[in-house]
């Protein structure tokens, strides 16, 4: 089977693209799926995380293939990795520029993290427009949600029709990245870990996988 391409896109910086990419990649890899990640963001945050991860070989963390490249090289890189992987996760740069567009164009599913504020919702329109223009399905992810705030509920109503997963505001996501890990490796069973597993399961379900107690069947 050829890999499914998940592009994490959002023109707004700081929305949680790299955080989601890393944790989602680890979760899928822990399900024994063959995962590759590509960092197209020149800022290289995901690359930095992976370089820490590589140094933890003694921990037997779930294997992940990794590449970083420019937007121009992206299609060739995806082509190279497609045959031997189940999922390719692309972490794209902010700004709705050519690099992000290339990443969206290659996607089977575009994942758009967004913080629950009207400003972020408005700033997300360019990314949604880009995905629509490229005729790509979108999954929005509300990130850093405060359970006390009713705003997210209101925003969910405003965003009807778009499938959605929720992430709380949790320091544990950053702590895991600092250790080169995903949250499912650092604190399996924690609320943060459950949140990323929920998203992973939604994505697997979307692509027709059967999810059975953390094992998947194509
Ligand atoms: N759910 C979350 N809870 C707490 N902090 C988060 C969460 N998601 C992201 N962050 C933090 O927000 C900042 C921006 O996240 P990042 O993943 O780098 O966004 P982007 O890649 O979109 O620029 C980082 O400091 C990250 O640790
Ligand atoms: Mg980033």
In short:
Helix content is 42%, strand content 21%.
Q: What does this protein look like?
A:
The protein has helices at 17-30, 45-54, 74-82, 98-105, 118-123, 125-133, 151-158, 171-178, 183-186, 191-206, and strands at 4-8, 35-39, 64-68, 87-91, 109-114, 138-145, 163-168, 210-212, 215-217. The protein has 218 residues and is α/β, with parallel strands linked by helices. It has a single domain (4-205, 212-217), classed as P-loop containing nucleotide triphosphate hydrolases (Rossmann fold, 3-Layer(aba) Sandwich). The strands form two sheets. The protein has a seven-stranded parallel sheet, with helices on both faces. Strands 8-9 form a two-stranded antiparallel ribbon. Helix 2 (45-54) links the parallel strand 2 (35-39) and strand 3. Helix 1 packs across helix 10. The longest helix has 16 residues, at 191-206. It starts with a strand and ends with a strand. 45% of the residues are buried. The model has no long low-confidence stretch (mean pLDDT 91). It binds adenosine-5'-diphosphate and magnesium ion. The site of adenosine-5'-diphosphate has 16 residues, from helix 1, strand 6 and helix 8.
Small molecules bound = adenosine-5'-diphosphate, magnesium ion
* Helix-residue proportion: 40-55%
Put simply, the count of helices is 10
Q: What amount of the residues lies in strands?
A: 15-25%
Overall spatial form:
globular
Distance between the termini: 9 Å
The helix/strand class is: alpha/beta
By CATH, the superfamily comes out as P-loop containing nucleotide triphosphate hydrolases
- At CATH level 2, the architecture is 3-Layer(aba) Sandwich
Task: Detail the poorly predicted runs.
Answer: none
């Amino acid at each position: 089977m050829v890999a499914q391409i998940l592009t994490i896109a959002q023109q707004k910086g700081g929305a949680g693209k790299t955080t989601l990419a890393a944790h989602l990649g680890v979760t899928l890899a822990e399900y024994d799926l063959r995962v590759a990640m590509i960092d197209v963001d020149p800022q290289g945050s995901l690359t930095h995380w992976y370089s820490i991860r590589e140094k933890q070989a003694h921990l037997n963390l779930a294997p992940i293939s990794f590449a970083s490249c420019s937007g121009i090289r992206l299609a060739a890189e995806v082509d190279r990795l497609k045959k031997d992987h189940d999922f390719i996760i692309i972490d794209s740069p902010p700004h709705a520029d050519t690099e992000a567009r290339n990443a969206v164009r290659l996607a089977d599913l575009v994942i758009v993290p967004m913080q629950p504020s009207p400003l972020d919702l408005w700033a997300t329109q360019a990314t949604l427009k880009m995905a629509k223009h490229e005729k790509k399905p979108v999954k929005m992810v509300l990130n850093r949600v405060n359970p006390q705030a009713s705003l997210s509920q209101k925003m969910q109503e405003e965003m009807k029709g778009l499938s959605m997963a929720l992430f709380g505001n949790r320091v544990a996501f950053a702590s895991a990245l600092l250790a080169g890990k995903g949250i499912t490796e650092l604190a399996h069973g924690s609320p943060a870990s459950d949140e990323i597993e929920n998203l992973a399961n939604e994505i697997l379900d979307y692509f027709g996988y059967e999810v059975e107690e953390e094992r998947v069947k194509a």
